[in-house]
Write a structure and sequence with these properties.
This protein has three helices and two strands. The protein is mainly alpha-helical and about 80 residues long. The protein has a two-stranded antiparallel ribbon with strand order 1-2. It starts with a helix and ends with a helix.
Length: about 80
């Protein structure tokens, strides 16, 4: 999650939007430089792949703790008087 936060802030604050007007049939995408020797595209790839890894880890975490989740939910929803 820390990688997502750091790369998100780098993309947002250090490298900007990456979109600019080139005029005359240009694609409108400009390279806005680099940060710590990584280009904007490398930072986006890093950000995307760490997001995939984070989703996999969350799913794995839920699968490994599913019995506890079910037990705790049942216990919380059982009202004893």
């Amino acid at each position: 999650m820390l990688c997502q936060i750091v790369s998100g802030f780098v993309l947002w604050l250090a490298l900007g939007s990456g979109v600019g007007y080139q005029g005359g049939g240009g694609q409108g995408i400009t390279d806005t430089g680099s940060f710590l020797s990584w280009t904007r595209h490398q930072w986006i790839d890093f950000h995307d792949w760490t997001a995939v890894a984070l989703v996999v880890l969350v799913i794995l975490h839920l699968v490994l703790h599913w019995k506890w989740i079910v037990y705790t939910t049942k216990k919380a929803l059982t009202f004893k008087q």
